[in-house]
Automatic annotation (TrEMBL):
It comes from the Bacteria. Belongs to the peptidase M24B family. Coiled coil: none annotated. Residues 310-528 form the Peptidase M24 domain. GO terms for cellular component: cytoplasm. This is Xaa-Pro aminopeptidase. Residues 7-137 form the Creatinase N-terminal domain. It comes from Sphingomonas palmae. Keywords: Aminopeptidase, Hydrolase, Metal-binding, Protease. Residues 538-597 form the Peptidase M24 C-terminal domain. The keyword Transmembrane helix does not apply. One of its GO terms (molecular function) is metalloaminopeptidase activity.
Length: 599
């Protein structure tokens, strides 16, 4: 099927064949992942949408695609308005859309392996008010019409050594076993791919840009575990690493295994596990206990080895980015570089370091109007030439065995306008305000989010995405549960207290539709801090990312004395740390870029 309109018609025919009025197509997989393998890219195949979050709703005579504020422009560029209605979230939701558009007796299908139980309950309630029914399908109708659907990856697992993990898998499983005793459960299902990777100290290559394997884990109260993974993915080294306490099963045995807990209490995270997992446990006579995955907080709270590893990764990644910034500053004014060629050159600089395993996400390489799309993804069709008068934004990161990086910088091509400098400086002021925050234990990212927005708010401006997200340790570049965001923004979620050892991004921005975008992103480590005369230990941030912040876009008159002092100290650290490992010409350029800012 060569067009997305043809694919939509084929899906409608298949729905009619299955006696369904409508169907829901989320952008996720059976593990509730943010980034999914090619085999699970059903939303992109159906609609053409290339973002990382969205949902489609299909009826016989209408269809809608739901996206948040990050994709307002992108979805209109990639998805046909002739076939699809554009619906914004969180102001609207799929359940209410169906309730408003279906007739009495309608049967709306959903794949129980792609939705949480909470979503199922909400949507079922909304449909029942219209005397319509939500129907769990046995097989996904998209798969029935997707003739060339890729197979799931069979890439082998690899061992993530204890030196890098900082703790053995046996010790981690013992902690989970202790937790099961505390909550009175017999077992816990670990559905998230990065949770299994962290718990068992293994990594994989099944999801683009995220080093995880398609697998489920069930941990028992005795600390042993059952790993469900395609047998082709197991190697002798991984078998030896896991030992006898981890029993390995074919991934297809997972659903049947859930039905063997009759009379047992099984902990399942309702935010991370799909509805089908709950259904299978209960159908087998077990009791599904909705509790948070016990690996979530330990995974997010980095230990000493993981923190040391991230520092090392930040050093080599910062050197690569600095070399790129010098290169693009010289090349861009000539008008010969494009968004794709620039992204490829940055990847090459990272690869030259010799330790890059993968990118941590597809680089957001955006010039001019594309910079105003926060999660822009460049393609051959959208690729623009970088030209004088524009701002070029590059948001990128690397996957290294000792850490995951994520950083954004903006480069002016030629002389920036006064407005560009004003907006950039306001973003920088917000970035500094968050970087220098001191706060008591128990404080959430939601409480800190306004610090990064105040300089923009003062000028009647804002940005429509979160200010910060958690980052994994050679794992997912977007890692929960902590966020720095408004509650209503993507990733805002419930308030999660920040803890020492967490790594989060600091990335306020400003976007002028059709013209340019600005974002300054560093990664922060939450640390404990005792203040002179203070009565309690507080928390604060240490900036981990090392790369110059574009001085030609700064209006120094807008910076306070304290802000200039922070910027000068940061740049001095960047120059002192990166300088010795850079080639001479790059080192000289960096020293100039990191000179103190004049008042």
């Amino acid at each position: 099927m060569s067009t997305h309109s043809t694919r939509l018609r084929a899906l409608r025919d298949e729905l009619a064949h299955q006696s369904l009025t409508g169907f829901v197509v989320p952008l996720t997989d059976e593990y509730m992942s943010e980034y999914v393998g090619a085999y699970a890219q059903r939303l992109g195949w159906l609609t053409g949408f290339g973002g990382s979050a969205g949902t489609a709703a299909v009826l016989p005579d209408k269809a809608a695609i739901f996206t948040d504020g990050r994709y307002t422009i992108q979805v209109r560029e990639q998805v046909s308005g002739d076939d699809w209605q554009y619906v914004a979230v969180p102001e609207n939701n799929v359940a209410d859309w169906f309730a408003a558009n279906v007739g009495e007796g309608a049967r709306v299908g959903y794949d129980p392996w792609l939705h949480t139980r909470a979503w199922v309950e909400q949507t079922r309630a909304a449909l029942s008010a219209k005397s319509a029914t939500l129907v769990a399908v046995e097989s996904n109708p998209i798969d029935a019409v997707w003739d060339d659907r890729p197979a799931p990856s069979l890439a082998p697992l690899s061992v993530h050594t204890d030196d890098h993990a900082g703790e053995s898998s046996a010790a981690k499983r013992a902690r989970v076993a202790d937790w099961l005793g505390e909550v009175g459960a017999d077992a816990v299902v670990i559905p998230a791919l990065d949770s299994t990777a962290w718990l068992l100290n293994v990594r994989g290559e099944d999801v683009s840009r995220t080093p995880v394997a398609l697998a489920y884990t069930i941990v028992g109260a005795d600390g042993t575990a059952d790993l469900f993974v395609a047998p082709e993915k197991m190697t002798d080294a991984v078998h030896q690493h896991l030992g006898n306490a981890v029993r390995v099963h074919d991934r297809t045995d997972f659903a049947p295994a859930l039905g063997r807990f009759a009379g047992k209490r099984v902990a399942i995270d309702p935010a991370l596990a799909v509805s089908a997992i709950f259904d299978a446990v209960e159908a087998g006579g077990g009791t599904a206990v909705p509790l948070r995955d016990p690996t979530i907080i330990p995974k997010a709270t980095k230990n000493a080895a993981e923190i040391a590893g991230h520092r090392a990764a930040s050093l080599r990644d910062g050197a690569a980015l600095t070399r790129f910034l010098r290169w693009i500053a010289a090349e861009a004014p000539g008008g010969e570089q494009t968004e794709l060629s620039a992204a490829a050159r940055l990847q090459q600089f990272r690869e030259e370091g010799g330790q890059l395993r993968d990118l941590s996400f597809d680089a957001i390489s955006a010039t001019g109007p594309h910079g105003a799309i926060p999660h822009y993804h460049v393609t051959e069709e959208s690729n623009l030439r970088i030209e004088p008068g524009q701002l070029y934004l590059i948001d990128s990161g690397g996957q290294y065995v000792d850490g995951t990086t994520d950083v954004t910088r903006v480069v002016p091509v030629g002389a920036p306008t006064a407005e560009m400098r004003d907006r950039y400086t306001r973003v920088l002021k917000g970035h500094i305000a968050l970087a220098t925050a001191t706060f008591p234990p128990g404080t959430s990212g939601q409480q800190l989010d306004a610090l990064a927005r105040l300089p923009l708010w003062a000028a009647g401006l804002d940005f429509a995405h979160g200010t910060g997200h958690g980052v994994g340790s050679f794992l997912a570049v977007h890692e929960g549960p902590a966020r720095i965001a408004k509650p209503s923004y993507p990733g805002g979620g419930p308030q999660e207290p920040l803890r020492a050892g967490m790594i989060l991004s600091n990335e306020p921005g400003y976007y002028k539709a059709g013209e340019y975008g600005i974002r300054i992103e560093n990664l922060l480590l939450v640390v404990e801090r005792d203040l002179p005369g203070g009565e309690a230990t507080m928390l604060a941030f240490e900036t981990l990312t090392l790369a110059p912040i574009e001085r030609d876009l700064i209006d120094a008159a807008l910076l306070s004395i304290e802000e200039r002092a922070w910027l000068d100290a940061y740049h001095a650290r960047v120059a002192d740390t990166l300088g010795p490992i850079l080639p001479a010409e790059d080192r000289a350029w960096l020293v100039e870029k990191c000179a103190p800012i004049a008042a």
